[in-house]
Protein: adenylate kinase
Amino acid sequence: MAAISRLAKPSSVSYLRRCLSSAVASESNPPYTSPPKPDYNLIHKDPKNRHVQWVFLGCPGVGKGTYASRLCNLLGVPHIATGDLVREELASTGPLSQQLSEIVNQGKLVSDELIVSLLSKRLQAGEAKGESGFILDGFPRTINQAEILEGVTEIDLVVNLKLREDVLLEKCLGRRICSECGGNFNLASINAKGENGNPGVSMAPLLPPPQCMSKLFTRSDDTEAVVKERLHVYNEKSRPVEEFYRSRGKLLEFDLPGGIPESWPKLLEALNLNDCEEKQSAAA
Structure:
């Protein structure tokens, strides 16, 4: 199983940049045929014997970072979230900071060129530390990015987290961050009724400890207008990426049934990782 340190052809970073120059020129989506059924036996091997290389897809605010980071801790691989890379750059005084700030505050997607630049920088740092395996969160978001990624490494599995749009909106508007400890919390108490034959969704709030309550703030892009724009942009630009991986038999659709207590066990079951968590708990 190839590790991040083996992405090079001879250098994954330079290869990403070379691919970008040709891939970004075309916005047309390739035709797709009926998708084959995923070969889940391929991805359900003992993680101790291989380094997983997975991607998490899903609308903004669906919880990609939450579940990807939990799986990374469970499997012992790095969690590479492009959203975090963007926020780190925004907090810096780097040359991209102001440009990124304008894009993010408008709810727009960051361009392929900027995202690949940030990801290349992160991969370089990972290679230097000898990292292997990964779960990508927030990349790829466009067909061009998916094609660039396919050119440099094999992706074993793409997990597509799904949640009703009205619940997503309420969830995003309830997000808060503690300015002191950096913890992420959510004040929304969601009880959405079932509709169109689909079950209802309930999510309890994730409240901060008392010492954080007075230090909470809302991200500048967590307004109703910006969240709705992000969802619109996702549907327009990123939905085709789901079909890109579906056509390759690598897409696992997962409907979140509720909050973490309800969803986490079911996600582990869908990934056939129940035994892995049990072993980790027994060893703790």
The radius of gyration is 19 Å. Residues 1-13, 19-50 have pLDDT under 50 and may be disordered. The chain is about 45% helix and 15% strand. The first strand starts at residue 53 and ends at 57.
